């Protein structure tokens, strides 16, 4: 069975990048090797893996990646710190902004 990963890396400028892959180690190395000057992480190396979640279904992984990409920094940091229970509160607070 193939495994897919949704991951977050912290870039050298302290921003976060969220991605999807089926080979986590290779993908993180690609970010740090910087082959594509057009990519977000190219000028923000090195990157550090701060979160990943495994999926058995590529469609679910892609859906979760898209969801995270729409999240605030605080929500991303909540899952990075394994504080999933904070997500509903952070969603409510964002609606008040």
TrEMBL record:
Q: To which protein family does this belong?
A: Belongs to the UPF0213 family.
Xref: Pfam families: GIY-YIG
Which PROSITE patterns did the record assign?
A: GIY_YIG
Tell me where in this chain the GIY-YIG domain is found: 2-78
Q: What name appears for this protein in its UniProt entry?
A: GIY-YIG nuclease family protein
In terms of superkingdom, the source organism counts as: Bacteria
Q: Which InterPro entries match?
A: GIY-YIG_endonuc (IPR000305), GIY-YIG_endonuc_sf (IPR035901), UPF0213_domain (IPR050190)
């Amino acid at each position: 069975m193939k495994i897919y990963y949704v991951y977050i890396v912290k870039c050298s400028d302290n921003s976060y990048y969220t991605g999807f892959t089926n080979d986590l180690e290779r993908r993180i190395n690609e970010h740090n090797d910087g082959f594509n000057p057009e990519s977000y992480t190219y000028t923000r190396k090195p990157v550090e893996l701060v979160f990943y979640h495994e999926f058995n279904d590529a469609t679910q992984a892609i859906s979760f990646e898209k969801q995270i990409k729409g999240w605030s920094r605080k929500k991303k940091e909540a899952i990075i710190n394994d504080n999933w229970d904070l997500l509903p509160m952070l969603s409510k607070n964002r609606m008040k902004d």
